[in-house]
Each structure stands twice: as structure tokens, then as C-alpha cells.
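Weekly modeling sync, notes
Attendees: S.R. (lead), two postdocs, one rotation student

Agenda item 3: backlog of single-chain predictions. S.R. asked that every request posted to the team notebook include the full sequence so nobody has to chase files. The rotation student volunteered to paste the first one in as an example of the format we agreed on. Action items at the bottom.

Example entry:
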Amino acid sequence: MVCHKLGDTSKPAVEPSSAASHLPKDDKDSQDQTTVIKPSPLQTSAIAPGGEFNSDSSSTDNSRDSAQIPTTPQLSSRMKHIKQEMAQNHLQFVRFEATDLHGVSRYKSIPAHFFQEKVIHGVFMPRGYLELIPNPKDNEVDHIRATCFNSDIVLMPELSTFRVLPWAERTARVICDTFTVTGEPLLTSPRYIAKQQLDQLQDCGFSLLSAFIYDFCIFGVPEIINSKTISFPASTLLNNHDQPFIQELVDGLYHTGANVESFSSSTRPGQMEICFLPEFGISAADNAFTLRTGVEEVARKYNYITSFFLETGFCNSGILSHSLWDVGGKRNMFRSSSETEQLTITGKKWLAGLLKHSAALSCLMAPAVSCRKRYSKETKDQKESVPATWGYNDNSCAFNIKCHGERGTRIENKLGSATANPYLVLAATLAAGLDGLQSGDGVLAGPDDSTELYQKSKPSEIPLKLEDALVALEEDQCLRHALGETFIRYFVAMKKYELENEETDAERNKFLEYFI
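Predicted structure, as returned to the notebook:
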């Protein structure tokens, strides 16, 4: 992807406040300036199998956008700190976790006394655990040999993600990147793809501040919830009803590095909403990945079942709230100096990219038949698609622009289902937004700097059928290039396999079992 110079006509206007102390502040004295693109070499954050590992050294930070690459003494210090933490907490096991294509944690537990050895050499896992299809058909994924599919891959830990798990006895976890046994990154790895897109963003002189907002349902094991029961969103009584469970979950997430900004009852019986604090880089997706496992484990301690799938046949929402910042994290590139609600030119170009690719985006963000029911729930007409909408402070839109609050101007990508892989949501959003910045398809409507957005191409429609969304993804050359030909062909093959083998009556149970 080639980056060109990007300009903006607005000045930053974020005022410092104690309520926003966790966020970087805009540089109040800086004027609008042209961003100069300085390419830098691609670097990986985990040591490839067979790589050099000096003494107690370890992996680097999450991505290039987070910090400078740690030196050998820094890596040694990190490993020393981990050893101390393991001793203090009397840890017995460490989980080496990686995401599968659905965003579900797949891991192997290692006895603690083998941890350093496994940090050096990695942990082997069958590739099929992460790619989830039996043997792929040659005519669908002929570039992936069956022998390759049945081979092992290597989990290499990123030590900055090492955390003691409050909900698991004497156990810690570390999030891993995945490699082939010859040391090459696994091209179907959602986390690897997301980190690649973050690197592309940094090459263009930007960084991403983002957070996920998830809905999930809590069920008592013996309970049967009537879908017509009246609910009261954010009711104090309902919020307090399961307070010990929610408090333990939120406190546990905090100790794993995932800071929760708020939680409340949502719109349906047993449904909760949880909002994370925004973070730069890959951390937002790591936090969402941690929630998906943590909420299940805490719930079982209380004899609850939690699910990202609704009892009415719909999937819960999984919103990605994000804003573009300069590479130093000082200045919100979406925030206009004007007092009115509006995006900067950079923000409008980014939004134009999201709108342009919304059909293909929806395939990755609502990756199952039930997930797509949310798109048509407001209409009774039999349609093949619905328009991709956007607006200011309008929660009914697919892309909701919020200019209020201490976070500053941000865009909520509301195409996502809570069952979508957060790394793919992050990666696809970045790829579409970057294309908007570089292609020039989105421009101002006129000299009055109207809030209307003009698109040279035909406005996007979001397919209601998964089959049509798969076609849109296959035909989207930008996303194919950004996410990788190998990943796209494999993802499409996986979804076609699921559709061919889907039993309609069992769909709900399949999701409850897998996404609980």
C-alpha cells in the first residue's frame, strides 16, 4: 500500500481535563500541517521459531506504534519481572493463547517450570485448531496443501501480554503470535493481519486509538427467559442484581490489563453492555479477546451461562469506537477546530473508505447467518440489502460519529457482531479507512464545509445474506490486497463450508456452545 501526503484544514481543539487523564491530549499550540510519510521496515513483535534468544530475553512490544523496540537488557528485565511474578503468585501453569478465525481462544497450558524453555522454542499446536475446517477442498484453497493444513504451527509468546488470571487458580496467560515451523508468520492469523495494518497506518504517519463496546447475555442455568419480557435498560435494580458477578469480571479484566470504562444492563432481558477504555495499537483487540474467555470462566463460578448470542436468534452487537491520531498520539486527526459537529477532511476521507467497503466489511464483522439479522430488524420489507448509513450522534447508523465527551471526535463502526473476531474487525476497519485516505473517493460537498459527504462511486449497500457478503468480500480488491489473498480465500472457503453444513434448527445451539 502506497501512502501519499495527507493534509487537513482544521486545528486540533481538545482541551485537557482530569476526566480524560487516561487519554493523550491534542497539542494545543500545533497548527494544521501536511503529514510526511516516512516508510519504515516491517518488524514482528514475537521471536520467530529458532530465533536468537539472549539469556532471559523475550518478545518485543505489541507493535511499532506502541513504543521503541526493546533492547536485549529491556527484554531480560521483562523476563526477570515475569519470573518474580510467577514466584509471588505460586503459579503452576501458563496458558499460551492464540485466536482462531472466530476470535475464540485456543491454548495449551504449560507447567510453570517449563515457561522459559517454551518462550525460547515456542509451543506446537495443530494448525487445524486455528483454521477450523476439516481438510480443505483443493478447488477452494488450492494454494494451501492438505499436508500443510494437517501440520503443526508454533505459538510464540508476546511477553508484554503476560498476565496472572484472577479467574483461574494459579494460572497465567500470554497471548501468542503464530508461525510455521520454518519461522514464517501464519498468513491466516487474525492478530498478525491486524498488526500488519497497524504498521501500514504508522507508515502513513498515524496511530489508532480504539475501544470495543460489547453486548452479551447472562443466563441462569435453570432459567428460561421469555423473549417478550419487558426490560429496562440501565436500570439500577437490574445492574445491582448480578453485582458480585459483574464486579468480579470487571476487576479481573483490570488485572489482565483490560480497563473497563462502564457497564450496564442493555435492551433485552439478561443482556449487559460493557465498554472498554480506548487504547492505542493492538491492545483494544487484545482486550476484547480477553473478555471473550474471561466472561465465560467467571460466569461458571456463579452457575451462570454467558453468551454473545441472543435467545431471540440475533447476535449481540460488537462496536469498534475509534479515532485517528498523529503517530505520536498527541493530536486527534478527526477533531475539527469548529464549534459545530463535523469531521475534519481527514475524518471524512476515512469515513468515505468505510462506506465504500461496507459490503465487504460486513462479511468479516457479521460472519454468520444470524449475525446479519440485525441489519434488517427495523424493516419488514423483503430486501436483498440495506444502505450503509452514517450520521452525527445517531445510534441507528452503521457509522455513528460522536463529537461529544472527553474522548474527542470518534467514529463508531456498528456493523460488527459480538461474535466477530476483534482482530479482523480492527484490521478490516483500518484497511477500509486507509483506502479512503489514499483514494480520494470522499470529498467535501462544497465550500461551505457542509457535513454532507459526497462519494464519487455508488453508495454502498450491505447485503443481508451471508452468501452475497462473501461475494462482495471476494470482489473487493482493496481488502483482498490488505488482508492477504491467502486469508481471504481461506476465510471464504471456511464460510462456504459452514453454510453447506449448516443445520438451521441447530444453529442457535451451535452458537451457544461455541461462543458462550
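Discussion: group reviewed the output briefly. The first strand starts at residue 93 and ends at 99.
Action items: rotation student to repeat for the remaining queue; S.R. to check formatting next week.
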